[in-house]
Amino acid sequence: MVRSVLLIVCVLLQVRNVIWRLFELCPSPEAAVAADVAAIQDIIYPLGLFRKRAIAVQRFSQDYLNKQVCACVCAGQLRTV
Hints:
The protein is mainly α. It has helices at about 1-5, 10-25, 30-35, 35-45, 50-65; strands at about 70-75, 75-80. A hairpin with a 2-residue loop joins strand 1 and strand 2. Helix 2 (about 10-25) packs antiparallel against helix 4 (about 35-45) and helix 4 (about 35-45) crosses helix 5 (about 50-65). The model has no long low-confidence stretch (mean pLDDT about 80).
């Protein structure tokens, strides 16, 4: 899910340069929620929209922890999980 947030208006190569640094900072949803939003922003800055994306990463992580994630896109089809 985090990769999907980062891929919006970006190409995979740009995201690959950033995502592993983000996962070092936030190896779990709990870590993403607890992380300083400015630290997330610094890492994803090269992707653009870094403020909005940092908030989205934290929000989606919190939703995941609260089990409010209820759908995903699999093979082009929206499915409830």
